[in-house]
């Protein structure tokens, strides 16, 4: 048994050392007469003569293929140039290590896709808040006869619309393309229903330049759906009641877009439009949001909101809706549903009118706060000077039937009165 163990150990030692370079031309970088080193520009060379290459025992440069002589490959496990083909970094799950121009290179492993057909091709679509990402497998497309480097949007092949790049997803190498979530951008088509927005586009993928062609170019249709939100619902509205102004970050840093709009429903997804009219006494929902700001860094605080019968914010006929960040119910019913906790603020309001006026102008003063654990931006507190805040305004068009009804009633009253007088005159005669 003892002899068997020695034989096995000797075999292991022999195998461990057999793969490493042990020649003399080129020399080892550690040789006394060489004192070599490795650099990105020149590879590994002797310090005494930079034109003379050497073989290192450590390889710390990015292009590790330049560390080893022809027929040898750097093996990070044994820290030597080995005759064993080794790819570094290791190949992905659908790749294999091959020698390409004496360089250990990861190439597609066709055996991984043996028997695969076009029906097995399934792209990966990632729908992010501001971008859509379509990703396709490089190796599978190559196996099927397609050329993943020849891909572009079907309806727009301009360079700005077709920037694709390689990346690794689920231990597979894919080719990805990003698209803005924006109607009309590079051929995007937007549709919607009562609860979602849909962005659609089509990707063209060409075929390989081979003498035998087995497939036709591919057209890949894809769609991302998004839940309707306070922001996205404004996209499909024809003429939403809204106002957008610039708001600065804390201490005047940066500039962002602050939008205020009004909605018919408590989900803040049905915008009131310019042609609409709102009946007095019904609920409307004021939504304020800041776009393109960092929600991890900032929150939006609405300090106060008030209404006037004119577009003059200093009109003396002023009715407060929010004061000090919270609902002000002395004159009208209002509820602050969200404030100071995110980049959106939500305010519920029972509509009202001013005497003999068919419009209500609502002004809100808001600011961006630092999003910190000790922030007081969601608390009720005394208002600061108005110059600290950014002001925005919208006009709520009211239903003026009440005024027409009043006139109609007055007209009917005179008709009835005249008829009554005529009856009296006839009786007297």
Word description of this protein:
The chain has 429 residues and is mainly beta. It has three domains: 2-86, no CATH class; 118-227, Immunoglobulin-like, CATH 2.60.40.3210; 239-398, Zona pellucida, ZP-C domain (Immunoglobulin-like), CATH 2.60.40. The protein is 13% helix and 38% strand. The chain has four helices and 26 strands. The chain has helices at 2-18, 138-144, 233-236, 401-428; strands spanning 27-28, 37-39, 43-45, 54-55, 73-75, 80-82, 95-100, 103-108, 124-127, 131-137, 146-153, 164-169, 172-180, 189-192, 196-207, 218-227, 242-248, 255-263, 283-291, 298-308, 319-323, 326-327, 334-338, 344-350, 359-370, 390-397. It has a five-stranded antiparallel β-sheet with strand order 17-18-19-24-23, with no helix packed on it. It has a five-stranded antiparallel β-sheet with strand order 22-21-20-25-26, with no helix packed on it. A hairpin with a 3-residue loop joins β2 (37-39) and β3 (43-45). The longest helix has 28 residues, at 401-428. The protein is elongated, with a radius of gyration of 37 Å. One of its GO terms (biological process) is neutrophil migration. InterPro entries: ZP-C (IPR055355), ZP-C_dom (IPR042235), ZP_dom (IPR001507), ZP_dom_CS (IPR017977). Residues 1-18 form the signal peptide. It comes from Xenopus laevis. Pfam families: Zona_pellucida.
């Amino acid at each position: 048994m003892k002899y068997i163990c020695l034989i096995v150990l000797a075999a292991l030692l022999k195998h461990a050392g057999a793969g490493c370079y042990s020649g003399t031309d080129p020399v080892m970088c550690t040789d006394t007469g060489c004192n070599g080193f490795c650099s990105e520009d020149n590879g590994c060379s002797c310090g005494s003569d930079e034109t003379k290459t050497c073989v290192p025992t450590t390889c710390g440069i990015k292009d590790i293929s330049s560390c080893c002589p022809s027929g040898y490959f750097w093996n990070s496990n044994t820290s030597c140039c080995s005759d064993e083909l080794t790819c570094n970094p290791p190949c992905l799950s659908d790749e294999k290590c091959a020698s390409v121009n004496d360089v250990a290179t990861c190439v597609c492993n066709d055996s991984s896709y043996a028997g695969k057909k076009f029906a097995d091709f399934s792209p990966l679509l990632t729908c992010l808040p501001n971008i859509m990402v379509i990703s396709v497998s490089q190796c599978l497309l190559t196996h099927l006869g397609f050329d993943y480097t020849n891909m572009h949007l079907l309806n727009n092949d301009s360079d700005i619309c077709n920037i694709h790049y390689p990346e690794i997803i689920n231990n597979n190498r894919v080719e990805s393309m990003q698209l803005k979530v924006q109607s009309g951008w590079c051929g995007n088509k937007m549709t919607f229903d009562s609860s979602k927005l849909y962005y659609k586009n089509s990707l063209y993928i060409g075929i390989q330049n081979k003498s035998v062609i087995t497939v036709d170019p591919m057209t890949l249709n894809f769609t991302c759906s998004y839940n309707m939100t306070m922001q996205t619902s404004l996209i499909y509205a024809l003429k939403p009641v809204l106002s957008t102004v610039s708001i600065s970050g804390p201490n005047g840093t940066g500039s962002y877009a602050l939008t205020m709009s009004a909605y018919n429903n408590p989900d803040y997804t049905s915008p009131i439009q310019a042609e609409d009219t709102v009946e007095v006494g019904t609920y409307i929902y004021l939504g304020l949001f800041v776009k393109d700001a960092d929600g991890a860094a900032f929150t939006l605080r609405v300090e106060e909101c008030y209404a006037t019968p004119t577009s003059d914010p200093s009109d003396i006929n002023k009715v407060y809706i929010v004061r000090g960040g919270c609902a002000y119910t002395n004159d009208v019913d209002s509820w602050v549903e969200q404030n100071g906790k995110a980049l959106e603020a939500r305010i519920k309001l029972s509509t009202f009118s001013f005497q003999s006026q068919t419009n209500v102008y609502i002004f809100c003063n808001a600011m961006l706060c630092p999003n910190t654990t000790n922030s007081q931006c969601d608390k009720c507190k005394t208002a600061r000077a108005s110059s600290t805040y950014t002001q925005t305004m919208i006009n709520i068009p009211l239903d003026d039937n009440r005024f027409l009804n009043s006139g109609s009633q007055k007209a009917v009253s005179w008709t009835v009165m005249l008829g009554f007088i005529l009856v009296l005159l006839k009786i007297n005669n």
